[in-house]
Amino acid sequence: MNFVPIDNEPAILHRVSEGNMDAFRLLFRHYEASLYTAALHLLGDRVRAKDVCQDVFLKVWLKRETLVDIQDFSAWLFIIARNRMYDMVKLMGDRPKHSLEAVMEYPATDGSPDDDVQVREIRAVLQKAILRLPEKQRLAYELIKIEGLSREEAAARLAVAPETVKSNLDIAVRRIRAYCQKELDWELLIALVVIFL
Predict the structure, then answer these.
(1) Which of the following CATH numbers is that of domain 112-197: 2.60.40.420, 1.10.10.10, 2.60.40.1820, 3.40.630.40?
(2) Topology annotation, domain 7-98
(3) What is the SS3 assignment for 2-47?
(4) How many Å apart are CA 13 and CA 21, to the nearest integer?
(5) Is the pTM of this model over 0.90?
(6) CA–CA distance from 96 to each of 25, 48, 154 (Å)?
(7) Three-class SS string for 108-158?
(8) Which of 63, 141, 156, 134 is CA-nearest to residue 104?
């Protein structure tokens, strides 16, 4: 795993530490592909790799006040990612790919008990929101956001037009956001929107 620091990283980390969502989104987008690729290589499963990315960046958000004190963010991120991947390997063993419900129940280790409670809270609320969706919207969301399929791949699997998948996904995301806005405080909601939606 080789994480290349983002340009002007100390200033971005400072903005994230102050709760700036745009800076967090920038950081997330910069590291997401490298982290996902490394997790996919180790775990061999797109759903689990995406889950690692989400858990790692939830940890970053939950620890944002401490980011300004970290001397080498990319090394710190590497350690969190490595620990999370190894925890998942131990947790899953050789079991086959799991359903959405099992994916949402993966614990986020390597954090404090408070972090774990917040991660579980986000995942539980998100799971409820997804399970409340009408079937077509839920399937579009799961295939694209959870399994990582492209719109065209999801359309082929569902035997519908890509535009139909896009429409169902857009509606699903709006409904999930609306549900989560009622259920989560704003700080957890920010992390959920940036990372999961």
Answers:
(1) 1.10.10.10
(2) Rna Polymerase Sigma Factor; Chain: A (1.10.1740)
(3) CCCCCCCHHHHHHHHHCCCHHHHHHHHHHHHHHHHHHHHHHHCCHH
(4) 11
(5) no
(6) 32, 11, 21
(7) CCCCCHHHHHHHHHHHHHHHHHHHCCCHHHHHHHHHHHHCCCCHHHHHHHH
(8) 141
Q: How far is CA 66 from CA 21, 115, 149, 176, in A?
A: 16, 13, 35, 30
70 phi and psi angles, rounded to 5 deg: -85, 125
- Two structure tokens written together for 106: 């993966």
Q: Is 180 in contact with 190 (CB distance < 8 Å)?
A: no
**pLDDT tens digits along 13-54:** 999 999 898 999 899 989 988 888 888 887 887 888 888 888
